[in-house]
Amino acid sequence: MSKRPDLSRSDLVAIALEPGIGLGLARGDHQWAIATPDPAVFLREFNEEAAPRWLWWDRATSDLLARSRVPIDRCWDIATVHRLLFGGWRTSVGEIWARLHDLPLETLPQMGQLDLLEMPDDDGDPSNPVQPDGHLRPEWINGTAHTSADDLATWAGLALEAHRLQAPLLDQLPDAVRAHSTARSESAAELLCAEMAQFGLPVNEETANRLIAEFAGPRATSVADEDRIRAERDEKVLVHLTPRQPVNLRNPAEVKAMLRRQGHDLPDTRAWRLEELAEADPLVAALLRWRKAERISTTYGYAWLDEHVHEGRLRGEWTSSDGAAGRMTASAGLHNLPAAMRSIVEADEDHVFVRADLGQVEPRVLAAVSGDPALVSATLGEDLYSPIAARLGVTRDVAKVAVLGAMYGATTGESAHALAGLNTNYPVAMGLLEKAAEFGRRNEDVFTSGGRRVRMWSNNPGDGDLDRAVAAAAARGRYARNAIVQGAAAEFFKVWAITVRRRGRSLAAEVVLCLHDELLVHTPEASAEAVAAMVRDAIGEAAHYWSPTAEVRFSADVSIVKRWSEAK
After folding, report:
1. Are residues 367 and 436 in the same domain?
2. Is residue 465's pLDDT more than 90?
3. Does the residue 58 lie in any domain?
4. For the whole model, what pTM was predicted?
5. Do the domain assignments include residue 390?
6. Do 352 and 495 fall into the same domain?
7. Rounded to an integer, what distance in angstroms lies between the CA atom of residue 113 and that of residue 111?
8. Residues in Cβ contact with 386 at an 8 Å cutoff, skipping those fewer than 6 apart
9. Do 148 and 45 sit in the same domain of this protein?
10. Do the Cβ atoms of 202 and 313 come closer than 8 Å?
11. C-alpha torsion sign, points 148, 154, 156, 159
12. Confidence class of residue 118 from pLDDT cuts 50, 70 and 90?
């Protein structure tokens, strides 16, 4: 093993690094071991000199790179590509290796206390990461066996072998070129997730404390004080009851009965139903205010603030795929922060946010992946639904509901009559959706245009209940129909996000939030206009890289704000 590899941009280089130990690299048949307490320094130098495509096992390496701020753009994450190929979310290096080598998952070794009665007679050489049965040793997977730079080089070499086995699986997909492209972009998106988890979302803690107090009351000093505050919050609703009687507002059945006694016999207590009554009935208005306060108190209250917000940053775990169609997900409320709380998300001093939201992205994606000429034509303007409405002879609102219903499998309601028009006028796009739905109904997995496997599920009743079996098949059909669009939209969004990440570096701009179709970029105020222009331009670059149909137009609403709540 030589000490210093000579790398080029065309290389694929596997890495394994461990602070305090060193850096291992592998390329082709060669491996290098560099003993150093700070391997990120060497990796940064190699990246600046050659910027090859870096390859690693899983998110653990991404987290190390994010903490060390190594600016890598081109990469391949074995675990991320595995989820692309096999579907699902949870996996492990041991499972990945086993699947790539056709080893039974039932015999995966576990790390833990050894049962001496069940130890194999010949466990082989413990310095070899591969057991005699072909599985990886647990101590190599969890890193406890990585005691030298040579060990890290060996581990990097195994990652390179895993890549050699993954590549042919991507080649077997219907569009191998796109599948490899998706593997690369999804890997970069996972690295972006590691960076967002590390850097956090800027939050004004003073504003957060004030808002929580306005909604949920002051911080409780004891259990008794907490009970008192809850009772006071409840009283703002119960005071409107005539006659007065106790009601558990946290019990939906009791709330429904309470409303019925007040003259509102409702099938459920969903917010949109209550909002229609709020102006005429103070009880309903108070109940809606109570719900908002209760949610903030229980989910986004002081305990949430203490756990997740530190040093002016809201931090949670990010992942590049939800295990279903492939949307990015986050914990700690990053994806579910109530609109009333968005004012706490505030840029640092002398900084602002560039906020961008893709417009009508899913129908535009449907046009791109289907190649339907009429639907592609509808994307050329700012508003996609108006030309569809004109073509169908319906209002814009009906056309919008019909298109969304076709993608989500809703075939009833006021737009149902427009579905026949969609089938007639956009047969290629509707045919693609129906083909996916049929796969789902047959309990067969579907694939996004980028090659992501979306698993179906078997929930057919075993009791011979035909109605339940039909309902289960229909549910899978609706899910599959939407998954191929939502999954492709997620893939396009991630290409856009990593493009902004790469191009924003020279402007000191950082992506701090990816919410469905929305990006939030933290940038110095002096660079805000340049970053906003870059974000707009990045849409075209991402579409050129991703879109199967070059003619489809994508756009986004872009604004510069100090607080997230200011974005429209």
Report:
1. yes
2. no
3. yes
4. 0.93
5. yes
6. yes
7. 7
8. 396, 399
9. yes
10. yes
11. negative
12. very low
